[in-house]
Design brief:
Order of helices and strands: HH
Strand content: under 5%
Structural class: mainly alpha
Shape: elongated
Oligomer: single chain
Number of strands: 0
Radius of gyration: 12 Å
Helix content: 55-70%
């Protein structure tokens, strides 16, 4: 099996975090707050 790229793995982690956060907050929230929560949940590299 071919190894996944770093950007692919990061995008998967980000999407999972977004969906998890939205699920915990009733499925909806302002994008500004969602982005702040994603930044807390997913460690991004430079």
């Amino acid at each position: 099996m071919k190894a996944k790229s770093k950007s692919y793995v990061t995008s998967a982690k980000t999407m999972f975090a977004a969906l998890t956060i939205l699920s915990k907050n009733g499925g909806t929230m302002p994008i500004r707050i969602l982005m702040q929560e994603i930044e807390k949940a997913v460690e991004l590299s430079a």
